[in-house]
User: Fold this.
Amino acid sequence: MRVGVLGAGFAGAMHAHSALGLDDVQVVAVAALPLDHAAALAKECGARVATAEEICAAPDVDLVVVATPTHLHAEYAIAAAKSGKHVFCEKPIARTREQAEAMVRACDAAGVTLAVGHVVRYFPEYQRAKQLLDDGTLGRPAIATLVRGNFSVGSAREWYLDPAKSGGVVLDLMLHDLDTVRWWFGEPSRVYARRFTGSAGLEYALATIRYDDRPIVHIEASWAEHSGFRTGFELRGDRGMLVHDSRAASPLTVQSPAGPSGPAMMATPTLSESPYRRQLRDLFARIRRGERPRVDGHEGLRSLALGLAVIESADSGAVIEWKAPA
Amino acid sequence: MSRRLRVGLISCAHVHALGLANTLQALEHVEFTGIHDEEPARGNAAATEHGARWHETLDGLLAASEAVVIASTNVDHRRYTEAAATMGVHVLSEKPLATTLADGRAMIDACRRAGVQLGVAFPVRSSPAVVALKEAIAGGTLGRMRAVRATNPGQYPGRWFGDKHLAGGGAVMDHTVHAADAIRWLAGDEFARVHAELGSFIYGLAVEDCGVLTCDLVGGAFASIDCSWSRPRTFPTWGGVTLHVVGEKATVDVDVFRQTLTHYDDTAGYTRLLGWGDDLTARMVGDFVDAILAGRDVPISGDDGLRALEVAIAAYRSAETKRPVAIADIRA
Assistant:
């Protein structure tokens, strides 16, 4: 599998590094805007620097990783599909529903795989919860709370702060948990949400997602978590409850006179293989076997649409009845 | 201030009653005048256990008291409050203030007419962590307060707490009001709109055991409240109260009952969290008593209780209509 990577930011670097460790996978080209931002990542991967347009058309690329700002996903995914390349797209699949639908059509027409990077489905704590739901250990789900926070990423990458480009904290952060509850519980029936945008990239949203009978789901997404990234959930069924808190789950912490996290004095791996690498390993194996990806374009579109419903509710103040796209 | 206030306890129906009896016995500024209970056997046993006087009649207890703490079922708050007011006795009522807005208003009116004070038991305001947050907000540390995610989950208390008539509802009646009062107090603002999703999913009750409220405040901030009886029987403590407060300049987490020892008990066969933080009930009752002794307004008034009750009542209306409900509309 020869991979071209579009974007050399957080997601592009994560996927490129994850792909590097897999057998029979090479990263052959990296693009960024401006182009020289791709140089360091390309060097680490032993890849060439090329424009996104060149990579989408390059004969030596089998799969294109789309890790550009969200509003550009559709343009490049469609170009890659038209050249017969498989597409792995960072979440959200696109900024708008129309863009996502166009991507799905283009990839279906070209007969290529479209996969969306809802990586939480590869995090073992979320997988274990899914298993305990499915095997009945927790009983029927009653109420679930999922939280996800980070410091404001906008100060580092300003496109996040433009809602027309990123969709803000709902499409960037809450989308992980919206996809997770669809994966855990199926399609909900209605949505109610609130959000605010503050100064200096602050953004915060709360959503309540109701299923026809049960459960009730409450989700928090925060770009006001100034101490850094964290995730958590509480999942109550009528036979028991699961609690996850990422802040209480680190098997290795480092402190030094330079401060609580100090400089990067040592690697702090928490799993032998990261969920990002598991995600790509699974995707490449499925492509080789001719199977559909775990999260295909239709599935990515449905999670995006749920995110857009959250935004619609927060902006209008109304309860939004949910009907999943086909 | 050496004078002691003569305070009695009405009813032991509430799960907090025995804790309140302990508090009345222990407080320096209180002379515990005894207990009356509509269930004589229960009240008599509690009086014996606490070395307090048993009053066969309500009037007997009221005649001996300058103030009473009411720990009855929620539906009985009104009749006990009206009886106390008639006798010129101040009232500290367990929460929620009442089961209906009409009852709550009647309690406030009765006390006002009689010239006695009405207080409501919201011990969260007595938490040093919550007080520190209040001061930080007032001092500008957080900047403008934009959002709160509050939780007050607990184990199902049993008894009459799942009885719609006696309690006025389920988890919403039991647990919304603590968080609603804390949010109002911290924000210095009032609730404008409430949305709620409720369900009876865990214990097979006729009332809700799960609920999430989303509320707008008049000044533009928003807040959610998880009031669910979601803590399993095997949970190591009764529940808790948390506040995640997002301001323009800082984000603050309060976990009111975080100060615990973890007790792995081989004899009992389970694990328990043993709280070692301040006794919030003692601080709350103490502040009520001291205000009355000093002739000041009590710190948490009947109006405060009514404002918090409005949020719970609005939540029920929202769950029925599947729409957000304006507080102004439920007052009408």
Residues 302-321 of chain B form the longest helix (20 residues). The mean pLDDT of chain B is 97. The interface with chain A takes residues 144, 146-147, 149, 151, 193, 195, 197-199, 201-202, 209-212, 214, 216, 222, 224, 226, 228, 230-232, 234-235, 244, 246, 248, 250-251, 322-324 of chain B (CB under 8 Å).
